[in-house]
Amino acid sequence: MAEIPSVNLAGVEKAMPVIGMGTMAFPPADLETTKAAVLEGIKAGYRHFDTAFSYGSEKALGEAVAEALRLGLVESRSDLFITTKLWASFAAPDQIVSACKASLENLKLEYVDMYLIHWPVRLTEIVKKTPVPEEIVKALDMKGVWEGMEECVNLGLTKGIGVSNFPCKFLEEILSIAKIPPAVNQVEMNPFWQQKKLRDFCKEKDIHITAYSPLGANNTKWGDNRILGNDVLADIAKSMGKTTAQVALRWVYEQGVSIASKSFNKERMRQNLEIFDWCLSEEDLDKISQLPQTKGVTLAAVLGPHPLVLEIDASL
Ligand code: A2P
């Protein structure tokens, strides 16, 4: 079973395994498929799982965790690191604790290890389909929302708190009011969206970055094959006897960030863990640093091209 390094997060006791298994599938997977994939992931060595209220995978993940404990695949709940996220429809000060409790109810857990604000935006309604009308998209009440997140820690519902898809200016706002600073910012990052400015900022502020879509979310509605189909990465992979996916994941890891990568395929999820006992050469790193930059995931693609949404996309 692969040995996965862990990273210490500011203010969080438990270290976080640097690669987490994503649980959002496209097209959406049913409960049994997700549960089976997570169990397979645990057998492969994954101990960090990434979900969100909006992914619809919390229940399946929770069932897989319960099953893994029953089967003795993991000794105790504390051997796992579980991240989930506050959906924008509940990103109002008085709804955060109950939203976190609802996620815990889905997961059938007493606590999560990391609770993230999913997007820096509030929706004033619960939405069943996207895009959404412009009038329900509002700016976050940053102070009130962050106090709600801190309350989740104080109540023991989560060990750590952080954000996702937050540009520097919103992080500044949180840092100026936080009693518990954000430990993590989970953002899109891969060889084609390297996030240099945000990474530098977060490093200075001791906020750890987790990269989602490290493989460009190939074969999903929001991703493409610009990474897995890229010749520069494929040539590097060939010269090292690795796969293009492994080169992309290794590059992300070498930037000092952690990874949330989804594969529900038994071979590929294992392959993605085989990135810790080799490294990229200076020459290869240089080639990767010159790849053209194109952002894959936009909030506008989900919510619609509303002014506030476009402003967030432009700063991420
Ligand atoms: P699958 O679940 O069938 O393996 P990202 O991590 O950037 O979100 O990308 C996820 C997508 O990449 C999924 O479609 C996943 O499909 C695919 N994928 C994951 N690992 C690999 C790999 N090693 N080689 C090729 N495709 C992969």
TrEMBL record:
The active site is at Y55. It is an enzyme of class 1 (oxidoreductase). Residues 19-290 form the NADP-dependent oxidoreductase domain. Pfam families: Aldo_ket_red (PF00248). One of its GO terms (molecular function) is D-galacturonate reductase activity. Gene3D superfamilies: NADP-dependent oxidoreductase domain. GO terms for biological process: secondary metabolite biosynthetic process. Its EC number is 1.1.1.365. PANTHER family: ALDO/KETO REDUCTASE. This is D-galacturonate reductase. It comes from Salvia divinorum (Maria pastora). The lineage of its organism: Eukaryota, Viridiplantae, Streptophyta, Embryophyta, Tracheophyta.
